[in-house]
Every structure is written in C-alpha cells, then in structure tokens.
C-alpha cells in the first residue's frame, strides 16, 4: 500500500484535484487577515506600466529594478497581475544608497 504522500494522481478530474487542494489548505495554519489589515485600493499600483507612471520612470528602468530583486518585497502576484505596494516601494527605494555620479 502506498503512502498518501506518494499517491500518483493520474486519473483525477479537475474537481477531485480542487477538492484535495481545499482539504489540504483547510488543515494548513495560514495566517488570518483582519479586515483592518486589508489595504485600501489606493495603496496599490498594478503592472509595470502603472509602477513606472507612479515613480515617473521608464518601464525599462522599473523592469531592471524588478529583475535585480530590488522590488521583490513589495511585489505580489494577484491572479496573474503584478501588484506593488506603494508604501513598501517608497520604503525600499528610500533605503537604497543612491549611485554616485562620475565627475569629469
């Protein structure tokens, strides 16, 4: 007899898989979010273009910052859409040392 963790799900329907995931998540100790902690929609900016407009930077600059991992703590994926916390982005950019410019 196979262990439950080693069970192969080859012939499972989408509903069966969804039910298994729901049961697994119900047993998990996920943190509860109070209604007070839910951010207002004005606290978020969506997509690279939206963040670029908010920061007044080009989309290429924002993409480079994201690729370097600078914005990782402020980045969330919500149903396939990138969402950035405005407050966290401002905090992260304020903490970063500014690059020195070369003088001729």
Order of helical and strand elements = HEHHEEH
First-residue to last-residue Cα separation: 75 Å
State the strand order across the main sheet.
1-3-2
Q: So how many helices?
A: 4
Question: Helical percent range?
Answer: 40-55%
Structural class designation: alpha+beta
Output mean pLDDT. 77
Give Rg in angstroms.
21 Å
What does this structure look like?
- The longest helix is centred in the N-terminal third of the chain and has 14 residues, at 14-27.
- The protein has helices at 14-27, 47-55, 59-68, 86-95, and strands at 44-46, 75-78, 81-85.
- The chain has a domain at 35-95.
- Helix 2 (47-55) packs across helix 3.
- By secondary structure, the chain is of the alpha+beta class.
- It has four helices and three strands; from the N terminus they run H-E-H-H-E-E-H.
- It has a three-stranded antiparallel beta sheet.
Describe the secondary-structure layout.
Layout: H1 14-27, E1 44-46, H2 47-55, H3 59-68, E2 75-78, E3 81-85, H4 86-95
Antiparallel strand pairs: 1-3, 2-3
Helix pairs in contact: 2-3
